[in-house]
Amino acid sequence: MFKRNLWKIALTAFIVVWAVSSILPLKDTEFNDYIVAEVGANNAEFEALMAQAQARVDAGTAASVFVGLKQIGAEQRIDLTQYFPQVRLESSLRNVEKRNAILLDYLLKESKGKLQLGLDLKGGVSFMLEVADEGVSGDVAEYEREENLAKAIEIIGERVNQFGVAEPVIRPVGTNRIEVQLPGISTKDNPEVVDNVKKPARLDFRRVHPRLSPLNTPANQTPPGYELMIEEREGRDGSIQDVPYFVKRLPEMTGESIDVAFATTDEFGRFKINLRFTDEGAERFADVTGEIAQESREGGQLAIVLDGKLYSAPRVSTRINGGSAEITGTFTQREAIDLANVLNNPLDVELIVREQNEVGPSLAADAIQSGVDASEIAVILVAVFMIAVYTIGGAFAVISLAVNILIVLGALASIGATITLPGVAGIVLTVGMAVDSNILIFERIREELIAGKSLKAAFLSGHDKVLSTILDANITTLITSSLMIAFGTGPVQGFGVTLTIGVFSTVFCALIVTKLLLEFFIEGDIIKKFPMTLPSKVPNFDYLKFARPAFAISWLIVIIGIGMVVYKGHRIYGIDFVGGDQVTLTFTDRDAFESGDVRDTLEGTGIGEVNPIFQNDFDGENETLQVQVPVGHGDDVLPTLQAAFPGAGFESIGQSSIGPSIGAEIQWNALMSLGLAIVGILLYVAFRFEVGFGVGAVTSTVHDILMTVGIFVLFDRQFTAPMVAAILLIAGYSINDTIVVFDRIREELKSNPDMKLRDVINTAINRVFTRSLLTSATTFLASLALFIWGGGVINDLAFTFLVGVITGTFSSIFIASPIFFWWHKGDRKHVERHQDVKPTYEWTGSSRASE
Hints:
Elements: H1 6-23, H2 31-38, H3 43-59, H4 65-76, H5 96-111, E1 116-117, E2 124-131, H6 138-160, E3 169-173, E4 177-183, H7 192-198, E5 203-207, E6 226-234, E7 240-248, E8 253-254, E9 258-265, E10 271-277, H8 279-293, E11 300-306, E12 309-312, E13 315-316, E14 324-331, H9 333-344, E15 351-359, H10 365-390, H11 392-414, E16 418-419, H12 421-450, H13 455-487, H14 490-523, H15 547-568, H16 575-578, E17 580-586, H17 595-603, E18 611-616, E19 623-629, H18 634-644, E20 651-658, H19 664-688, H20 691-714, H21 721-751, H22 757-789, H23 792-823, H24 828-832
Parallel strand pairs: 1-16
Antiparallel strand pairs: 2-4, 2-15, 3-4, 5-8, 5-11, 6-7, 9-10, 10-14, 11-12, 11-13, 15-18, 17-19, 17-20, 18-19
């Protein structure tokens, strides 16, 4: 047995070790301490440099030691890599400043914990960008300003996504400003972040003068129509050489001809940017290079100019028909990637930085702690429940669950995901759903034991029979999560990534880890019994008898809920969707209040959603409180807080309107993800089962989504950004439960060739009813813990799942199954014409299960 499972043991061990190494260290190390500890040579010299860098920080000439070291290296031409011989850089990169930048960026990244926290838990950087007014006026200017603002927000969102699976806040403020908040990033250590986000991208391809050069032309005699431009080239010793050219002012073609840009390396390991043209761009590029090649025997040069800077002027000796080009230069890897990102998302309006601050966690310390506590309680409740019901099998499930959580966290850390409190809740709820696969296995073993098989035979037979069910249920969930990643942005995409990882880790743990544990203990005769605190008798209830009234009542509730959605209109949306008012306050006594107190006080007046955020300038001397409230309630903030906290010394220094952080595009992408997921589920189920099953599955999924939304609104709750993903997650849960029922119906059709379709469906539901109830119980317990002990958005997420769990279980029995029955007009012959349901037989042992 050991030899047969050696590969499983080795694979599991490898994945566990990888996951642990991926999430360690858990916490950040202070950069100053980390870099000193990492010095591998000439410690005394480096300590002197650290003292100089700290002196610059104290004098205010450097924002941090990180920046101070960069400045010292550049000014004194010191190669800092000599102190860190263990960090290997490209030998071809000789420029000292770039070597130092790569080294310090690497050390800064290594000093951070692998699991970075989001804005709500840790805070980050906040900056306000203003769209430059180019002098136009009137109605045209207003229209152009709105268009430029919307385009800039879209492009900034695409650029920010390059930082990883984060959950940034990007929203319009007033008519010409954009607020950007990036979690877990400090501009003290990463001053280039703001520049990369707001960087324009005017790309030109211009001709270089075919005969004249600044080197052989008298000063101040630039040819008409040309301008003097300098290309920086890195010498063999790392020095920068200036090479002048006369470059035509008007471009032959612009960046609009570019289809895609990406960073890569040449045969010497030097970084460059490859460009691929559109069809029209490729044709124009061929014409331009053909004309330049004919200028002389040696050909000519075509300059690549980005935002007025000459990056390269490659020689053209023949017509180029390949539809691609490249930008070469002395790029670091980060510079090449950033440049490619900018070219892919060209921002053709100038953005000016008006404010730049460090923001504190958007959740109060007590709210964060309550959310963490609720998550811990939820996991403990699920574990206790599994052990109480399945005893030793439950213990195996808990071990498998621990491996599952470890894999999910390791995968998130390895891709640089940012962990938010809603993200933690999403992981917890995924854990509740992940137990489902173990319950499926245990329930099939129990069923085989009741049939009279030995423990070993029951284990082998039960596990084999449930394999296709586990795969089908998780594949349909994977369809939903994949579309969330492909078409979603922000929290939708983040939830999609977490759910996708959860699907793969769940399947691995169920089919490898849990099976390995069961096989070792059962086939090794270590355990003789598999006790479960469940009744052995299968229920015999006629579910289809109540299908019509249950169907009618549930859809009536759906109609009432959707009617309330229509009646309330935009009032169902929170600030994330419709924007609001933002009031900036100063205060004299920070100890007189907490952000949680501010939230509770204002929400107690019936204002609605309230988001208080502390904000610091970079010297740490001026701290302000930003309070975001629904539109029209900004004037109520100051008097309410002054009355509630008279000793705090609140004063208002500004009020502005803020736009939504969840724009129309994100909403549309979420709806498109949902629509495509439904179509994908229909096609998959129809392919794996048949059309009747697919129609039932889709109808029940739509029913669950509409009912969850309706009940959410009926209880006077507002939709926030994470709720979009939560609704999509409900779709995944719903189809998961439905697939299990359908898989059993298909099995019973094959096993009972003479049974009527009505009896087949009732038998199948009765046989999986315990499993459905137990799966719902585990997810319900996790949701209930988050609902009771979690606050704010955690409470909303938990409420959504409480409703979704109930309606998902209900719909698989009273919506999906009856629709399948009615689709085939209650006649199994109609099913048999569309599906292979021939009966199957198997040998059954005579031994009895141990009691």
